[in-house]
Amino acid sequence: MRTAALAALAAGAACHGDHEPPHLAMERTGAVTALTGSKPNVHLISPLPNGEWRLPSGDYANTRFSPLAQINTTNVQNLHVLTTASTGVPHGHEGGPLVVNNVMYVVTPFPNNLIAIDLHKPSGAIKFIYQPHPDPRAVGIACCDVVNRGASYADGKIIYNLLDAETVAVDANTGAEVWRTRVGNIDIGETTTMAALVVKDKVLVGSSGGELGVRGWMAALDVATGKEVWRAYATGPDADVLIGSEFHAFYPKDQAPNQGVTTWAGEQWKLGGANPWGWVSYDPELNLVYYGTGNPGVWNPDLRPGDNKWSCAIIARNPDNGHAVWATQLVPHDHHDYDEIMENVLVDMDWPTSDGKVDKQRKLLLHPGRTGFMYVMDRRTGEILSAEKYVESTNWARRYDLKTGLPDEDVTKHTGSGKIVEDICPSSTGAKDFTPSAFSPLTGLLYIPAHNTCMNYEGIEANYIAGTPYLGADVKMYPGPGGFQGELVAWDPVAARKVWSVREDKLPVYSGVLATGGNVVFYGTMDGFFRALDARTGTMLFQFHAGSGIVGNPITYQGPDGKQYVAVYAGVGGWMGAVASPDVSADDPYAALGVVGAMKDLKKVTGLGDTLYVFGL
From CA 104, how far away is CA 85, in angstroms rounded? Predict the structure, then answer.
């Protein structure tokens, strides 16, 4: 790591332009639970990050909103790079750093080192580097790059997952390993790439490996000891899924017992996928955690007749015991690899009722699906309140029937053995992927990093061998119609419409989004531009060209000098960024599970990277 380049992390800049508005001035003492200037119909359900960034998405509600406002629409054009630092690992940097007690914590892709940087030190000194040395066999098993999506801070520990299906807790002050728990088995293809989330005294960890026949699970570990407390599978009998007397699904289609078995042929559920490798949200009032599950295994739908529960579903659980409270399957018998592991943003908003009245402060769950539909759900019950297309090219389904919770699918887009189905939109990478949206209570808008990518899809035979790819499909992707392939979409969840968008001609938007109290939205592009937009209008206010494509998630924090900073990784990779690797040929459109056809130009505009950038005024 370039230690000399870290000096400005602590030193900051001498001049910081306009001061933040008094009503948004933040101190480090206490969480922010109310925000002057919020839309009157918006209620926050979880404390916001208050000058720090302790959780993967900043808060439990997954808003990725910070009230910090020193950097705002009037001065963001004056941002400049204060420092850069190399992690030394040129692979996909999909997560974001944490900032706790004036220390920045960076988790690298495999080998998953934890780098702690003391922001107090004038020299920007490294506080410690923890090296866990995970099993190198995991590198050849992981589906889509050797990524890590971040860590959580709790109880004096930095807690995160290793690629080889282990979870570690590291003393945040000393760098000493506190505990280490093996949660999966790489010999059967299980890896862990998601950002662990600490809820009360539990660490929530979900599996990856849907492309290797891994049966998905969510596990809870004791935050003090690392001991496993409960494990809930995504397929199998109700006892394994932790469905019991507390479970009350909203739709009849989801209410029958043991659907984790009965909606599969034979024992295919044992290879059923549905891995929850994305994001977890938590509602402290309802005491429920929410997460989505991935695609069913195998990709060829003819090899797994039935609805294949609980793949492509949103699940609500009691974090204390793991018991399911409700589940809603969004895509039965998935034909297109539409994982629904995307973020679930929790917010209370006034909601119009069918009789023209307003349901005050409806408890909402906002889920921008890989399917191309923006789902707004009642997070108490799992009812779908609205489902509209946020990417216009979406054509696999026409609409959702809100009474049944089922999509009105175009059967001509159904895939299967022995046929090539063309022009399916979105592609398997989705209208968006794991990269998280941001919600601003100041505008009431959700900012979605979107794709406009389509595909041809052919189901083929597949044979299961533990720890090896179990796909059953040949896929070729390509840019969708309209002359663009990426789009940052500002979406009004109540009106169910796009308010504004910024399009990218050649590449998808594949970074996370950050919204701030300064009415600024930050995100990155795959060709390496880091951008700041006016959250109200979408007007571009600032951009900087980084040394590699950005697939990470920007954060903001208050330094020990009381000034606001913004940090982001630049290191292209992941599934759609695989083309940047010298090991992947840009000449084979079917390579990297089909993304090369859509991303062949990536090598021309960026290369691999490993850099942390910190910006200030």
Answer: 12
Distance between alpha carbon 148 and the CA centroid of its chain, in Å? 11
Number of other CB atoms surrounding residue 136 within 10 Å: 12
Task: Identify whether 310 is preceded by a cis peptide bond (ω within 30 of 0).
Answer: yes
Identify the active-site residue in 52, 337, 388, 487.
Answer: 337
Q: Among this protein's residues, is 211 annotated catalytic?
A: yes
pLDDT tens-place string over residues 114-161? 999 999 875 568 999 999 999 999 999 998 899 999 999 999 999 999
pTM higher than the cut 0.90: yes
**Residues β-bridged to residue 153:** 158
Q: Using CA of residue 175, residue 199, residue 94, residue 228, what is the dihedral sign?
A: positive
Find out whether 345 and 439 touch, Cβ atoms under 8 Å: yes
- What's the distance, CA 214 to chain centroid? 20
Active site residue 519: no
Distance CA 417, CA 460 (A): 5
Quick one: 98 exposed, middle or buried, by C-beta within 10 A (0-12, 13-18, 19+)?
Answer: buried
* CA nearest to 344, candidates 378, 318, 321: 378
The catalytically annotated residue of 59, 118, 211, 504 is 211
Considering only CA atoms, which of 97, 125, 128 is closest in space to residue 11?
A: 125
- For residue 588, the tally of other CB atoms under 10 A from its CB is 13
Residue of 102, 295, 452, 519 with catalytic role? 295
Other beta carbons within 10 angstroms of residue 34's beta carbon come to: 11
Shortest CA distance to 273 belongs to which of 253, 243, 302, 293? Answer: 293
Residue with tokens 């349901």: 359
In tens, the pLDDT along 493-530 reads 999 999 999 999 999 999 999 999 999 999 999 999 99
DSSP 502: E
| Neighbour-count burial for 411-434, b at 16+ CB within 10 Å, e otherwise | eebbbeeeeebeebbbbbbbbbbb
Q: What is the CATH number of domain 3-616?
A: 2.140.10.10
What is the torsion angle, in degrees rounded to the nearest 10, for the CA atoms of residue 339, residue 343, residue 349 and residue 353? 0
Q: Is 337 a catalytic residue?
A: yes
